[in-house]
Amino acid sequence: MSSITQHTVVDSPYGPLTLVATDGVLSGLYMADQRHRPAEESFGVPDPEPFPEVIEQLDAYFAGELREFTVPVRLHGTPFQRGVWEQLQRIPYGETRSYGQLADRLGKSGASRAVGLANGKNPVGIIVPCHRVIGSTGSLTGYGGGLDRKQRLLAFESGVPAVAALF
């Protein structure tokens, strides 16, 4: 039995977002020009039907009314990647963790580079908050959507609109 893949594109304060569903469950959220963005052909047919709840939650998030997403996601990746992505979902809104802290939580002390690689391949950006991961010194390091977007998302979540407006 084959899977049904559908997609739609929605506007956001961070540019257009491509939402992808596999068998009706969100399996991708990609920004324009995102690193590791799959080929457009893999997004399936254009169809907004599977996405009303996702769009509603994204709108509430961008309006500052939602801090934790509850929309179901289907994350395709290796067991290690899925473990990293599960840890990302445990980082509270407005907080950050380092790659090393995530590696420690996975029981893989010293695997911060592997955590970084898995973080960069997160297929459901924003909802699975890979933007909340920073370097051990507090520096902003790599983000598939670009460091400017990462900086803006972190500023937005920290409640510093003046800073967010600068970027």
Structural write-up:
By secondary structure, the chain is of the alpha/beta class. The chain has two domains: 5-63, Double Stranded RNA Binding Domain (2-Layer Sandwich), CATH 3.30.160.70; 79-158, Winged helix-like DNA-binding domain superfamily/Winged helix DNA-binding domain (Arc Repressor Mutant, subunit A). It has six helices and six strands; from the N terminus they run ββββααβααβαα. The chain has helices at residues 52-62, 79-88, 99-105, 112-120, 147-158, 161-165; strands spanning 5-10, 17-22, 25-31, 45-46, 97-98, 133-134. It has a four-stranded mixed beta sheet, with no helix packed on it. Strands 5-6 form a two-stranded parallel sheet. The longest helix is centred in the C-terminal third of the chain and has 12 residues, at 147-158. It is globular. The N and C termini lie far apart (46 Å). 32% of the residues are buried.
Q: Would you summarize the structure shown here?
A:
The chain is 32% helix and 15% strand. It is of the alpha/beta class and 167 residues long.
Descriptive keywords:
Arc Repressor Mutant, subunit A, 6 strands, four-stranded mixed beta sheet, alpha/beta, 167 residues, 6 helices, Double Stranded RNA Binding Domain, disordered C terminus
